[in-house]
Amino acid sequence: MQDLYGVILSPLFTEKGAKLKETENKLLLKVSKNANKIEIKKAVEKIFKVKVDNVRTIHCKGKKKKLGRFEGIRPDWKKAIVTLKKGEKLDFIEGV
Description:
Elements: H1 4-7, E1 8-11, H2 15-24, E2 26-31, H3 37-48, E3 52-60, E4 64-67, E5 70-73, E6 77-84
Antiparallel strand pairs: 1-2, 2-6, 3-6, 4-5
């Protein structure tokens, strides 16, 4: 098991994430590549003090990028969609 703050790396601020938060009470988070759903759920519940209903994860492949004649690859990363239980609310995104 990892450190709680090592599991959740950052929130994702996107248009899709804002729509999911308003309509379906879901959060988008960037998480560690080797974190599983159980660790993500425990980390969100302990850090933000909310009840989690469901966690879904997505592995995102890094894109190829070119800079002149050189080519590189951005690192792979993992995204989690966390569904909060009914009546739960998380307002850490409201300030942005």
